[in-house]
Amino acid sequence: MLTGMPGFGAEYMGDHGAVNIIGAGFAGLSAACLLAREGFSCRLFSVQPSERAQSVLAEGGLNAALDTMGEDDRPEEHYNDTLKGGVFLADPNAVKRLSEEAVRVAAWLQELGVPFHMKNGRVVLRNFGGQKKKRTLYSRSSTGKIMMTALIDEVRKYEASGLVERFPHHECVRVLIAGGSCFGVRIKDLYTGAVCDYPGKTILCCGGLTGIFPGMTTGSALNTGDLAACLFSEGVVFSNLEMIQYHPTTLGIPGKRLLVSEAARGEGGRLFVMRDGEPWYFMEEKYPELGNLMPRDVVSREMYFTARREDCGDTVYLDLTMLSDAAWEEKLKDLREELIHYFSIDPMTGPVPVQPGIHYFMGGIDVDIDHRTSINGLYAAGECCSQYHGANRLGGNSMLGALVGGHAAALNIINTEKAGDMPEADHLTGSGLYPVSPEDDPALAEASPVLVNRLSDILLEGLGIVRDGQSISAALEKVRAAAGENPDYNLREKNRLILAEAMLKSAGSRRESRGAHYRSDYPETDENFRRTSAACYEDGEVRIAFRSIPERRES
Fold first, then answer.
1. Residues 343-398: tens digit of each pLDDT
2. Cα–Cα dist 121/443, whole Å
């Protein structure tokens, strides 16, 4: 059990050195709240202010087994659904903590003033995919924005007292690592161009690999993925990189994909294709128990195969016309406004054409149950790390995972380490500003958009909804060919090529189908591969190994 969640009786622990937090979304703000409450100073670095963090885009809700709907729900059932949804690839001990902490997180957010949907003094919970019981708290279809507003206000209190220092419009260009330990971060002011090294233990809350697939994801276009690529190239272990979630219901807009929240299907939305001139609600026929609320990997695959049948049209539609006026006004008003604004489609009166789009990266920086990375003094939380979700994330678990993860990382720093204890490094100049040009630090040079888009196209060929050894190998050969074409690639470009190779080699090494990783040449789930894929870059080579899933410990 986590202890010390603000509002749950944590003890004040005195003054300590500053902790660097990279990213100011759910995970970063959760970590900052606990660190500041416990007397630790922290710095929040982010490319944009919290008000524009990717967390603001989250629509559907947050899972917690509150059992306010009279369905006899319990955290153990949340645990079971999460493990099953991730096809048993996640650490059961981490998932156990996630499901148990969910109830306390929900109570804390209510204390902060988050206006979850209520009726007769009780929180109303909605259905979400992969879960048989209603356990998702929500606030219309803007849950992320509303929760972030409350968290931002809470952190402002600590900012006023001097315990939190904000650095919006600042990019982390590299983590400073020596001797297997993190001793600080190098930060670029995006307004002035000035660069500064900041000492301290570091929590990475920098989001998923959105920028590796520009224009193809529902995430923020501001997240380039360059920091992740830099970390991997410097020896930080990543895991489950092959696990990329395609959300079934998205539409293309300039620069990204627009998400049609799973909440729409939770309220009764139905997917169909035209077959022999009639609507065919294929999910309900194939999966009568959960229908349109099957886990996202299942729905995306069924859409993929159904749209390729000779007797079906090639467009999948989401039918929301049967929803009540009250559902639109009270729960999905924002979604309707977006669809009318961007596409001139009124979902109250006509179906919405949808396609799967990349939505979430279950894989990322490898962390243990306390969110420690393979580098001493370096932590990771939120979508940038591989934790909780296994082979497929359930809707409603992303915001929860970010909040619990940020809190867990902060708690480990508080309980076991002094944030100011760093390895000696003569070149670290504290918080004094000094100029660094791209010639002095090659990590400051931007990657070419031409290469970025080319790599994205190659990766999509090998890491689509349906994959096979041939497509993965062909994509890998194209990456290697691209790497050999230009000896003058800058550091960010070289790092991206290395990370792309790791993603493809991870997919090629997992010779089974599990969750979001579906291989048509290995269509069955193989229990010999119920192991974590770990990728590392050593001696100029990408290496993939598999390790066993921990056994559940009974507390």
1. 999 999 999 999 999 999 999 999 999 999 999 999 999 999 999 999 999 999 99
2. 53
407-425 in b/e form (b: 16+ CB < 10 A) is: bbbbbbbbeeeebeebbeb
Question: What's the CATH number of domain 251-357, 3.40.190.10, 3.90.700.10, 3.20.20.70, 3.30.450.40?
Answer: 3.90.700.10
CATH 3.40.50.700 fits 442-525+532-545, yes or no: no
CA distance 30 to 158: 12
The CA distance from 481 to 470, in Å, is 16
- pLDDT single digits (tens) 491-501: 999 999 999 99
Which of 229, 240, 264, 238 lies closest to 250, judged by CA?
264
pTM: 0.93
Beta strands in 385-473 (DSSP E): 385-386
CA distance linking residue 46 with residue 54, whole number of Å: 11
Give catalytic residues, as residue numbers. 296
**CA-to-CA dists, residue 475 to 102, 358, 469, 479, angstroms:** 40, 18, 10, 6
